[in-house]
Predict the structure.
Amino acid sequence: MSHTGILRSWNDDKGFGFIAPTHGGREVFVHISAFPRDGTRPTVGETLSFELDQGKDGRPQAIRITRAAIGANQPVRSRPQRIEKRGWGGPIRTALLLGLLLTLGLIGYQHFQASLHRRELAQMPPTVSPTSPHEHADTAPATSAGSFRCDGRTHCSQMTSCSEAKWFLNHCPGTKMDGNNDGVPCEQQWCTNSFPR
């Protein structure tokens, strides 16, 4: 059964007040939970429609309040708007993260390709240049020189011929085969007068 009354008192800090019924009688206790959740606060003097129920202390308590000035319960509209605003963060953050990952992947791929190209160049056999300042007329034929490679050998004891020693001296860094710096390596072992140069 529905009743009407006026909100006579309200304690906003504690969230309760008392309604004076229109047809007289004792004031009825009302809690904030009985009001519609429309974002507004109860106002002393406003007209209310309500139903009666028994409170925890056994006394009558107003429930299911309808406010005459506002009407029936209305859903709060601010919450979906907040959710909608928050929802934009997800797609934008995901797009930025994907863009960053793609950029990093592209940079890594370019570095890998450059490193692979450098390795291929390092493995290619060096060509004998006829204008080299250390080149002599008695250099070994191009066919045998093309088979030589800088493989880390630097001393005469590691060579197998005068031609090989000369090629290493002219093309490989860090060789220690020309003590007097005259351009002729391994003069006591390979490139002597008794060995063909």
